């Protein structure tokens, strides 16, 4: 079957098109993305990034905020009693609110999938602590080895210790009734 006409030809590069101007104008229009709401509310779009951050008491360059001393630690530095480059913070509430948010305790958001929880509970309920038997079970769809199953059970124990204790306690009466 013959090829379609014109498809084997190379496309020509246009040397006259100024691509730099296109990218530069798109970059200039984009406003800076600010993740923190405190900074977003205190931001003044008429000022530069460095000016805005300086007003809030923040630093754009971590090397300038905490400079590495160029002298050896044993050498003494003479000072006149004045602090060079002392900056005035006009919006200290931004830093205070950010420090308060950082001091709040972190929520534990790690959870296990419902499928994994059901799988572990099924294995413990039917096989107890026998991991080799669990590996041969027909519900072991992913063909986990005994060590992998043991690891999954330990993860479940660490994530939900109270639920695991209650589950084990509910299994003991059933085992007594069988014997």
Topology:
Elements: H1 19-29, H2 37-42, H3 49-56, H4 62-65, H5 92-103, H6 114-127, H7 131-135, H8 146-159, H9 161-178
Helix pairs in contact: 6-8, 8-9
Protein name: Nucleolar protein 16
Region (Disordered): 1-21
Pfam families: Nop16 (PF09420)
Estimate the helix proportion, in percent. 40-55%
Query: Span from first to last CA?
Result: 78 Å
Shape designation:
flat
SSE arrangement, N to C: HHHHHHHHH
Q: Which residue ranges are poorly predicted, with pLDDT under 50 across at least 5 consecutive positions?
A: none
Our estimate of the beta-strand percent is under 5%
Number of strands: 0
Organism: Sclerurus mexicanus (tawny-throated leaftosser)
Family: Belongs to the NOP16 family.
Region (Disordered): 1-21
GO biological process, one term: ribosomal large subunit biogenesis
